[in-house]
Amino acid sequence: MKITFIANKAVSSGCAVIAVKKSLKTGGGASDYVAAMGRNFKKVAKAAGFNGEKGKSFSVYAPEGVGVSRLLVCGIGDGKEFDAEMFGAKAAKAVMMDETTVTLHLGGMEVSPDAAARAAVGMRLAAYRFDQYRTKLPASKKPVLKTIKIACDEPAKARASYTKYHGPVCDGTVLARDLVNEPPNVIYPKAYAARIKKLEKLGLKVQILGEKRMKTLGMNTLLCVGQGSARESQMVIMTWSGGKKGDKPACIVGKGVTFDTGGISLKPGANMWDMKGDMGGSAAVVGAMAGLAARNAKANVVGIVGLVENMPDGNAVLPGDIITSMSGQTVEVQNTDAEGRLVLADCLHYASTKIKPKAMINLATLTGAILVALGTERAGVFSNNDKLAGQIAAASETTSEKTWRLPIGPEYDRLLDSPNADMKNIGGRLAGSITAAQFLQRFVGKGIPWAHIDVAGTAMKPSNRHDPRETTFGTGFGARLLNRWIADNFEG
Ligand code: BES
Ligand code: MN
Ligand code: ZN
Question: Which domains, from first to last, does the chain contain?
Answer without folding.
Answer: 2-154 (3.40.220.10), 167-490 (3.40.630.10)
